[in-house]
Amino acid sequence: MKTSLTGIQIWAMPVLLGLVSTGGLTAALLFDGIGDAVSWIALAAPVVTALWYGVRRT
Amino acid sequence: MLTRSSIKHWYLIHKWTSLICTAFMLLLCLTGLPLIFSDEIDRALGYSVTPPDLPETAERADLDAIISAAKARRPGDAVQFIVADPDEPDLWFVRMAENVAAAKPSAFYAFDARTGDYLYQYPLDQGVMNIMLRLHVDMFAGLWGTLFLGLMGLLLVASLVSGVVLYGPFMRKLAFGAVRRKQSTRLKWLDLHNLLGIATLVWFLVVGATGVINTLATPIFGQWQSGELADMTAPYRTMPPVREPGSVQKALDAARTVAPDMSLGFIAFPGNGFAGPRHFVAFMQGNSPLTSKLLKPVLIDAQTGGVVETRELPWYVTALLISKPLHFGDYGGLPLKIIWALLDILSIAVLGSGLYLWLKKRNVSIEARLDALPNEKEKDCA
């Protein structure tokens, strides 16, 4: 039986996605122009991640 | 590491909070999808106004003339608010109702801010988008409907939090994003539920929590009206209400002198819940992305046109004002709205897959499922 993953292995991506999402939600609220662009890229990250892992064939 | 019994408790919390709120959350996610684009849809349907092309001018029409023009259109009604839109500096909007304090508007006009010309009357309470909005805001059940949806939103937050707690034990032997497609449809959807749920988590939490705060708008403003606003107008309490308020143009000019680096959001007329019996209140907005979402009320004597007092809004109104853009996703242009819609669709998939998993396995106890966790993985490795 495969050994359990460590906490870091389990939580690294969720925490990263959470921080990036938080940054994206905040950026456009605080800054125009560049802030909007940052929010588009940052909030696209969870969408792209979900689609990448969700539809890929392994 | 969670013990077996605590996993079981968190699972029960996740199951029951989700089961109660899922149907309502599906309704909110589905009706919310077109609402993200309500500006664009209104424009496409022609329910919008563009100020006519005129030579560049600093000329501003007199607000009192605009008010008179609005009153002439509905002589029996009262003006409740004058509203400005920072994105449309050449327009003034006038909201009218049967009386100045009425909850429902009777007309919403647009005027040219340069010439004072009447431009457009917005249709009220009609069309498909209005049905979407009502279903989303109160399910046609008024304040109680709104508060009920707020309660469902709280259950969603509890469901998301318990879902995160369960993510750890369920992913103990699976790499991030692993989807077991070959074994059973249920396992595939369990993995997709975990993947989509954890990916959209922060967005879903923020939109859910800010939605809950939005459901409290009426009590929040009620608290401000009966607290701060009543306090500001207290010295005038024994005086009779004004019958014919003085110049609103003078009131706006006075408000601008005490808030020179701000622009007007809206002016409430004397007798309205957002003003006093003898006072206009001008709600001023800042000019930075964040402060433009906030409001600063300026109390103005309706007869003399002089500023009486200005006070920052208390934290709970500020929290409500910040919640609005974070719920609507309307603060970063069309690309942000499109991403908002994609995240909304992914959330529908999280809700739908959760419902499917419950339907599939509702006769199997959590103990049996916990026992099956490592075995499922063993088969995968074999």
UniProtKB/TrEMBL annotation, chain A:
It comes from the Bacteria. Keywords: Membrane, Transmembrane, Transmembrane helix. The chain crosses the membrane at residues 12-31, 37-55. This is Uncharacterized protein. It comes from Methylobacter tundripaludum. The lineage of its organism: Bacteria, Pseudomonadati, Pseudomonadota, Gammaproteobacteria, Methylococcales.
TrEMBL record, chain B:
Keywords: Membrane, Transmembrane, Transmembrane helix. It comes from the Bacteria. The chain crosses the membrane at residues 142-168, 189-213, 338-359. This is Putative iron-regulated membrane protein. It comes from Methylobacter tundripaludum. The lineage of its organism: Bacteria, Pseudomonadati, Pseudomonadota, Gammaproteobacteria, Methylococcales.
